Amino acid sequence: MRELYPEIEPYRTHRIAVDEIHDLYVEECGNPDGLPVVFLHGGPGAGLSAYHRRFFDPERYRIVLFDQRGAGKSTPHAELRNNTTWHLVADIETIREHLGIERWVVFGGSWGSTLALAYAQQHPERTIGLVLRGIFLARPPELRWFNELDGGAAWIFPERWATYESHIPMEERDNMIEAYWRRLDSDDEAVRLAAAQAWGYWEGGSTTLLHDPAEPGNFEDPQVALSVARAEAHYFRHGMFLEPDQLLRDVERIRRIPATIVHGRYDIICPVKSAHDLASAWPEADFHIVLAGHSAADPAIVDVLVSATDALADRYC
Predict the structure, then answer these.
(1) What is the pLDDT of residues 94-110, one digit of tens each?
(2) How do the residues of the chain divide into helix, strand and coil, expressed in percent and rounded to 5?
(3) Residue 314 designated active-site
(4) Architecture field, domain 12-139+241-316
(5) Among this protein's residues, is 294 annotated catalytic?
(6) Residues forming a β-bridge with 104
(7) How many Cα atoms within 13 Å fall on the side-chain side of residue 277?
């Protein structure tokens, strides 16, 4: 099985102002003359991790990574004004133009897969390959699946859901996203942080194939937990700023772009039906269901992702 490439450091970083509010952190790694690829992190709001650089051969790729609005090293932290899917799609284009890149590979997992599809469908002429993991199509049943008691995930991880639910009074539990949003948008910092940590316990502990109900699951840095929870609640309550079934409807725009889709059979955050539906609408894509959960670090998922990026480098380099 393929493994991640060795750890690397950026050879250049940038700060790019994309409007009067937001300033993005962007880094470049690998070979400055290599095949350009842009990495789209999950969340929204999660930001970059060092291991994200390692899905690509640093000898053959010019690896571009950035923290999306309000996440990671981008500023202001956890800011949700001017923060929608379409702002982020525009940001990807701004980064591409700023770096003088004509066309590139687009790589995204979980929310990053949603954003990658939205970007590619808007800019197919700029996209020469897609590598997608943990598919999330942002349809209403997918939002209910993980965020409401009758959705499904709560029936699989009942111990963890009980803790998540206990943070919200009984009379507000008919709409957990809105209940959490009221706390995450509170003027009281302690209220915001407590809600963010409860949100992180539910989501962060649900990513792996082997589930431990005692695993805390919180994002280690409270500020990361806050940016993730605020951004996700903001996006969820607005349907990810997409029309229902939009990403499936517009597959025709990207049908001829080489693409790999990989999904864990036992992914509880993003159920495999989403990937199956995408692959059914897009039979030209190379589709893999593997023995894994949601995490991009699962060995079976790493194997497919690295094989896919190597294949694109073989094709274009």
Answers:
(1) 999 999 999 999 999 99
(2) 45, 15, 40
(3) no
(4) 3-Layer(aba) Sandwich (3.40)
(5) yes
(6) 127
(7) 17
